[in-house]
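Entry for the shared binder. Reason: the reviewer on the internal report wants the predicted structure included alongside the sequence.
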Amino acid sequence: MTAFLLLLLGASPAWSEADGWNWRTTTTPHFLIKHQETWLPPGFTINTERIHSRLRMDLGMFSPWMGRERINLYLYKDQEAYVKGEFTPPAWSNGLAIFQLKAVALPGMKDRRKLLQVMAHETTHLLFEGYFREQNSQAPVWINEGLAMLQEADSPEKPETSEWYQGMTALEPAQFLPLEYFFTITPTQDMKDENKKTVGNWYIQAYSITHYLLRKHSRLQFKSFCSELRDGKTPAEALWKVYRYRSLADFDKRWKAWLADPIHKRRIAALAASQREESGEEPTKATGKGRSLGSFKPFSTGFGVHNFPSPQGEAAAKGAP
């Protein structure tokens, strides 16, 4: 069985032509991958299937079609080709979801781990936002981004592998925004004049709250919560109806109590020790503070194309992430 799976995922790519580029196509059980380079990065197909399996656990309840339909994945050879490609994303982006085509587009990256993280992030947007679009609704930015960042971790059992989890552990509670304000923000619109650290704190808060709602409660509760938001309920109303938090202040207290649990710093310290052991570095005193905010991009660089033109030439409308 293992040998058959490896043979299936490692199949030689087929050739196709699209918009002046010579594209190769590799098919896996859950993806139709179009790529400009002759070969995909080593291990890419197997890792995309692993990501799909992980996403299906959390997102299958929002997008049941993901179990029976393939996701279209466009992998450009580099950033320049990606920006000049048929989807014309903004130059600052490093990935996009095209909802009408059930597709994700990515530029090639030298950092293979980062490539897989971005792929997981953008595929989450594709799957989650589709749930809201079914009722002509828009997913709240904070939970949309929080869920996408949550899926960047290697697995639910290893949240400490996520830079967002590390950032969450390093952040002081006083640096989080009041929830009444936090839930109303769209960073690309409302925080243009803020410095990157402040914007980064908003994204870390979105990650942390979404992590708490999904990982510390049942998936059914999380689905019901999102359903209430889709139906127009405020976060406070949905938190009471589904989780029985009496108010935003009550939720804030419980969430921050979870943040104060020393298990987070222990996870970070254990990860750091493991990485030092693998690299052969001399052991140093573990602080458990996680990475500094300057060690990763503190904001999402994805982009959503909500209505890409159909083959019949429908007008396109592009939306901010």
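Summary line for the report: Strands lie at 14-18, 21-27, 31-35, 71-76, 95-98, 103-107, 302-307, 317-319.
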